[in-house]
Design goal:
Length: 275
Amino acid sequence: MDLLNLPRLDKAAVKKSFNRAAKTYNHAGVLQDEVLSRLLGRLQYVRLEPASIIDIGCGTGRGVTGLQKIYSGAKVIGLDMAYTMLQEAKKQFRFFSKKRMINADMERLPIASDSFDLVFSCLALQWANDLNVVFREAVRIGKPGGLFMFATFGPSTLIELRDSWFEVDQRPHVHQFIDMHDIGDALMKAGFSQPVVDAEVIKLEYSNFRQLLNDLKNIGASNADKNRSKGLMTPSRLKKLEAAYREKGFRDGKFIASYEVIYGHAWINEAPPTA
């Protein structure tokens, strides 16, 4: 089974969740901000002067802003499938005009080939049904000699919540994430050169269980598996889930949520020398 090509996500549900979360995303997205900062920091180690950049899955535009600060002379475009996210970005950042927004799915990019020197994506690739398609699209829209840089989540992400839900029922409740090594192989298969992939685990702590669940809801990270249970969270199920979580992810009075963050970059055709 090809884990990079599992039609498991209900894209309409994904879009709906992120549209709903647009106004709460920035407040709840502490982890997202930290990963974005670390990913942007990696750009200092590559010799690149891009004139054109696209941020795939830009959300509320913080990545676009960060990229614009680093490359002040570049034209930076933000793309997201959730239109309300783009509207929120436009409210927050004056330069984020309609000309710099594309409302589209990363698996079907309405963009001409050889358009961007830097294809960037921070914590969005996990919402693709077929990562092979996304990588081929990144190769297509990137210019020869251009760079693809990304961060996504790996399979140990929210492992405490996944294991806790398994104690309640056997339905999928936590997103299925792709292994770092499979991502590296997919980059080569798509036609990238010199791919580099690494990972780290970041742990967040919560004082209460409701806060953990609310944060996931407020960043739009809801369960969008096509085989998910459509029923409401009842008080009894919530009580069972919290009891299981106390066994799986409760340490020193805190509820722990683990995130395996996978970072990667690869060159399109010829790779410029590193700094």
